Amino acid sequence: MKKIVLTETQAEKLMDKVVSEQIAPSDRYTQEVKCGFGYHNLTYQGNEIDWIEDVKFSVSFDIHVDARSYGIKDINIMSVRGPEAIEIVVIYYPEGAEDHVEADAVVRLNWDDVKIDNDADIGWIGIDHDIDIELEVDQEGNFTASMITVHSKEI
What is the pTM of this model? Predict the structure, then answer.
C-alpha cells in the first residue's frame, strides 16, 4: 500500500471537491453555478446599465428517473432551487461622467418558473455550471428575475 502526502492546500481543495459532489440531505443534488445576466435597455438609478458582474452561488435539484419494466425511459432534471435573492454589482456611467460607478443591488429570484433547457454539452446528467437570468426592474426600482434558465443534460 502506498501513502500519499498532501499539502494543507491540496487537502482543503480535495475536501471541498468531495463535499461539493456529495448528495445533499433529502436526496437532492447540488451544483455551484455562475450566473450571467440579461439586462438589455434596463436602467439603474436613472442611468443605462453598462455591465453587471457574474455571480456564483449554489443551486439544488432533483434527478427524476422514469423506470419501466424494460428499463429506463427518461432521466429529467426537476425542482431546481437556489437562493431567494442574490447581491449583484451594477456598473453604469452617470450622464456626462467619464468614470463609471459601481453600485451594489439585490435581485429577488423566483424558482417556481425556472426554464430548463436540455441543450448543455456536458459530460454528465445534471445541470451545467452556467445559468442565465433575465432581469427587469419593478415600479419601486428593484431588480427581479423575469426568467431563470438552467441548462441541463437529460436523457
Answer: 0.75
Amino acid at 10: Q
C-alpha distance from residue 4 to each of 7, 9, 18, 21 (Å): 10, 14, 17, 22
CA distance 140 to 55: 23
Measure CA of the first residue to CA of the last residue in the chain; give whole Å. Answer: 40
User: Is residue 89 within a helix (H) or strand (E), and if so which, with residue range?
Assistant: strand 85-92
The string of pLDDT tens digits covering residues 13-62 is: 777 766 555 544 457 899 999 999 999 988 888 888 999 999 999 999 99
Beta bridge partners of 72: 67
Taking Cα atoms as reference points, which of 149, 46, 33 lies closest to residue 90?
46
Contacts of 113 (CB under 8 A, 6+ apart): 147, 148
